[in-house]
Design brief:
Helix 6 crosses helix 7. The strands form 2 sheets. Strands 3-4-5 form a 3-stranded antiparallel beta sheet, with no helix packed on it. Strands 1-2 form a two-stranded antiparallel ribbon. The longest helix has 23 residues. The chain is mainly α and 260 residues long. It contains 10 helices and 5 strands; from the N terminus they run E-E-H-H-H-H-H-H-H-H-E-E-E-H-H. The N terminus is likely disordered. The chain starts with 5 loop residues before the first strand and ends in a 5-residue tail after the last helix.
Amino acid sequence: FAGRFAINERGRPIASFGNSAMSSAWTAMAAMALIFLALGSRTWTRVERGVTLVWAGFFVFATTSAGGRAAYVAFAAVGLGVWLLWTFQAPTTLAKVRRGSLIVLALLLGGVGLLATGEGRRSLTEFRGVFTGQDTSFTSRLVTYQLGVEAIVQQPLRPYGTGAFTVLGWQLANPAQERELLLQIVPVEAMDTVARSGQLVTFESPRTGKTVTRVAQYDKAHNYLLDVWIAFGPLALAGLILIVVGILGVALRAAKPQTQ
């Protein structure tokens, strides 16, 4: 959320963590961490729980108001899924109602963030565009996944190194895939005038008629498993998977009731 205070050269607010998706992913993780801390501790007072949950509510609002469709999906899948499971495990009906009310409150705060802020409404429109076909970013992700898999098939054991996908993507793309990638940079009305040389793309602006030059840099496959394998090889990917599995194992053991 604080990342939205960064200003670019045009005087517009940007996310200092790289982009809006990363900015809202941080706040989504912070919200879930605070909620789990407040609800999981058996030694905290009501005041401590209340203050922590208020902060968690702020981060829920920050997540939806900062933009980032990936963070919305992750927050809903992980956060709401765990909250629902936690609610059903409540020992009494009253406890289920109390816990369920927190889920409703989180949804309301998230809805306020989406509808009451310009960035939230814009990202909501983009998210809806994925299902209506107006947003092509989803199809471009599918293309980068395909190119990532193709790069691994051609060189499965030896890593390409960091930043290699920037070059590999364009080298491996067929004409149809290249068009999908270019549509993220070039207006569809200008596709007939587009020309690419390496990572530089030029086209005629349909609005002004002037030639526009942009950097067409796809620096990753937009998939952590593919990106780690391409850059660092299969051993590094196995290490990443072990870390994730280990964290989940610790979390599951910690969730079990402790016996004296």
